[in-house]
Amino acid sequence: xxxxxxxxxxxxxxxxxxxxxxxxxxxxxxxxxxxxxxxxxxxxxxxxxxxxxxxxxxxxxxxxxxxxxxxxxxxxxxxxxxxxxxxxxxxxxxxxxxxxxxxxxxxxxxxxxxxxxxxxxxxxxxxxxxxxxxxxxxxxxxxxxxxxxxxxxxxxxxx
Length: 159
Known about the structure:
The chain has 2 helices and 9 strands, in the order H-H-E-E-E-E-E-E-E-E-E. The protein is α+β, with helices and mostly antiparallel strands. It has 2 domains: 1-35; 43-155, SoxY domain (Immunoglobulin-like, Sandwich). The strands form 2 sheets. Strands 1, 3, 5, 6, 8 and 9 form a 6-stranded mixed beta sheet that branches. The protein has a 3-stranded antiparallel beta sheet with strand order 2-4-7, with no helix packed on it. A hairpin with a 6-residue loop joins strand 5 and strand 6. The longest helix has 33 residues, at 2-34. It is elongated and about 85 Å long.
């Protein structure tokens, strides 16, 4: 009988360990998620990292299409269209989509070449609340163009 009781208690301790270990690990992950990591950048820090301090020009060549009001902040459609000949001498090198108030300002970075034939990109981004969405475009000559539009998030933000 003592052996049977011993085995029951071993099984009970093992079961408790199996149930509590994931809870402890998930709690640690949640704590880590709250801390800012190296990829969590404010808007100004993200722009500085992308441009390296170069001047940015607001341009009509960059057409940013976002809804004025987003009913669901988890899936906000964004389209960026840049007027460019997309030749070897003059093309869109990169399109960066940023937001101004989320924990990580960088939504997406897209690298292009003249073989893309169009300076265009479309995606969906998460917005934690009402804020501006910014398209920052790097041209092949090293210049930066910008377009920004406000988006009002009514419900379901990612924050």
